Amino acid sequence: MAPAPSPTYSAITLNINGEKHTLPVDHRTTLLDALRERLDLTGTKKGCDQGQCGACTVLIDGRRAVSCLQLAVAAEGRVITTIEGVAEGEDLHPVQQAFLDLDGYQCGYCTPGQICSAIAVIEEHAAGWPSAATQDVRPEAGVQPLTAEEIRERMSGNLCRCGAYVSIVEAVAQAAEAAQPPSGGSGDGNGATEAEAAV
Amino acid sequence: MREFGYERVHDVSGAVALLGADPDARYLGGGTNLVDLMKTGVERPARLIDVRDLPLDQIEATPDGGLRIGATVTNSDLAAHPDVRSRYPGLAQAVLAGASGQLRNMATVGGNLLQRTRCGYFTDTAKPCNKRVPGSGCPAIEGEHHNHAILGASEHCVATHPSDMGVALTAFDAVVHYETADGPGELPFAEFYLPVGDTPHLETALPPGALITGITLPPAPVAAHSRYRKVRERASYAFAIGSIAGALDVRDGVVHEVRLAFGAVASRPWRAHAAERALTGGPATGEAFAAAADAELAAAETLPHNGYKVTLMRNLVVAMLTELSEEAVR
């Protein structure tokens, strides 16, 4: 049976930073190219375009993803947040503020991807997700603190060719600290374990 | 990139029917490998069938004490799942050792099994490659092969399978479930990947048009004492040059049960049966661990630039089993 003809383009609606954008796309268009070339959302950067550098990191349904390997047509119906959408109006996201406070960048090209990734890293850790740096991944071991080693491993999908890593790790640590719920009185200083228990 | 049609499917039979009607179609999961290969022209599908919305995203306990993992479960969700971390910690570690947080959020279990080799000749369409263009030759054998296979390769192809997840799945005797137009089927992991021989372009025993629907992990109490260890050329976010999944049950100093599988040394995740046989029923000592590694690696065939992998894997076997045996005593 001959395959039915299938169009190579579609009109799609993307939900980006709370706004709906309807646009026709060639199916070959990546989400990265749709953001930058079609919607003028140029905060998301194109680095390697091969999923190897993390410069194009955005949040899809709240989870970090590389937009260069995400086809735009396959992103229809999902909630997309780019660097342009993380602040609350004029109030910077705590991760943005931490990168500013601690000079978590040099040239700045990888920074939007670093910040989107870091926002997700803090949430993933709070949700009790282990990483390759986690000594004991068993849930009964509890959540281990977000140490510098944990941050380096969890952020390893974002390359910085200026080598601003030292400050990036400090910025993520500061933002993570600020994101912790106020101490609930258990007094053990291990808020992460409480976060795990709540999952 | 070739132009292509795109369809999003919501039920398994619809997906299988669409693919069956178009031999140039491919299933699209997370796209972390397929989209990359389409950009470079290695893959040129005429149509993508997006399976991400199929109802295959659950991880469930099976009545016999194993786990059933849906094909569209993401790597992230697999590694974060409490039952996986508790009962098969080596699998969670293997998944976490692969790729980056971003890619693990996108990538799916089904796609992980079907990802292609990262051999530089396979991914460069200007070069010959028997896997990409059957009969065109294998430049890796005379060329750049420091990260190529030492076990089970052939004169036609020395590429390695890049999966970390698959190494742990091999160790735990996973079974792959699939659907075709003729109904469902399953393949034990040991039969899922085909030997290289003179057909390196044929990678799996899946029937044409089959859609992977999930994986079953049989119950394996030994897997609760499992680990994954990966060696690579930088500290994180790189493919392995050698990796190992291991599980060990020692009773009164004697190896009661052991599981060992190697990554980045063969065209498929490599179950180390010879090492397991050498160990089972014998003493859990460093000498026995080294002898078991040697038993497995006796079959190794090296090229001028990848002989180091024999030493690397030997050391990994000893280190892994030593760690696991110390843990078991604790």
From TrEMBL, chain A:
A GO MF label: 2 iron, 2 sulfur cluster binding
Keywords assigned: 2Fe-2S, Iron, Iron-sulfur, Metal-binding, Oxidoreductase
Gene3D superfamilies: 3.10.20.30, [2Fe-2S]-binding domain
Region ranges (Disordered): 179-199
Domain 2Fe-2S ferredoxin-type: 10-86
Superkingdom to which the source organism belongs: Bacteria
Pathway(s) of this molecule: Alkaloid degradation; nicotine degradation
This protein's name: Putative xanthine dehydrogenase YagT iron-sulfur-binding subunit
Source species taxonomy: Bacteria, Bacillati, Actinomycetota, Actinomycetes, Kitasatosporales
TrEMBL record, chain B:
SUPFAM superfamilies cross-referenced by the UniProt entry: CO dehydrogenase flavoprotein C-terminal domain-like (SSF55447), FAD-binding/transporter-associated domain-like (SSF56176)
SMART domains: CO_deh_flav_C
Listed InterPro entries: CO_DH_flav_C (IPR005107), CO_DH_flav_C_dom_sf (IPR036683), Diverse_Substr_Oxidored (IPR051312), FAD-bd_PCMH (IPR016166), FAD-bd_PCMH-like_sf (IPR036318), FAD-bd_PCMH_sub1 (IPR016167), FAD-bd_PCMH_sub2 (IPR016169), Mopterin_DH_FAD-bd (IPR002346)
One Gene Ontology term of the molecular function aspect: oxidoreductase activity
Key words of the record: Oxidoreductase
Matching PROSITE patterns: FAD_PCMH
Keyword Oxidoreductase (UniProt): yes
Top-level taxon of the source organism: Bacteria
A Pfam match: CO_deh_flav_C
Domain FAD-binding PCMH-type: start-end pairs: 1-222
Database matches in PANTHER family: OXIDOREDUCTASE, XANTHINE DEHYDROGENASE SUBUNIT C-RELATED
Protein name: Oxidoreductase, molybdopterin-binding subunit
Organism of origin: Streptomyces himastatinicus ATCC 53653
